[in-house]
Amino acid sequence: MAKNLEITILLDFYGEMLTSKQREFLDFYYNEDLSLAEIAANVGITRQGVRDAIKRAECLLYDMEQRLGLVARFKDVQNGLDEIMDCATKISAENRKNGLSREISDLTVKIKSIALSLSE
User: Fold this and answer.
1) Same domain, 57 and 15
2) What range defines the domain where residue 12 resides?
3) Residue 25 carries which DSSP code?
C-alpha cells in the first residue's frame, strides 16, 4: 500500500513530464485499481506491454524525484509548517496562562493564519 501512495504522489508532482500513455497506464493501475489484464484489454496491447510501460514510468518518476526532490521538499515544508503551528499554539497557551498580552495573542493568530494559508 505504501508504494501505491508513493507512486500516486509522484504522479501528482511529475505526471505532466510523462507521456500521455504512461500517465494513463499509471492512472489506471494506481488510481483506478485496474489489473494489468484489464488495462491491456482496454487499450489493446498485451499484459506484458502494460507491465513494461508501468515499470518504465515508475522508474522515470523515481528518477525525477531523485534529481529534483520536489516531493521531499514539499514534505519538509509541510513538516515545518506543522512545527510552526505547534509552536504558535504553545505560545498562545502560555500567554493565556501568564497574563494574556493582546499583542502576543494577535501575533500567534497571525502566525497560524499564515501557516495555514501556506499549507493549502
Assistant:
1) yes
2) 2-68
3) H
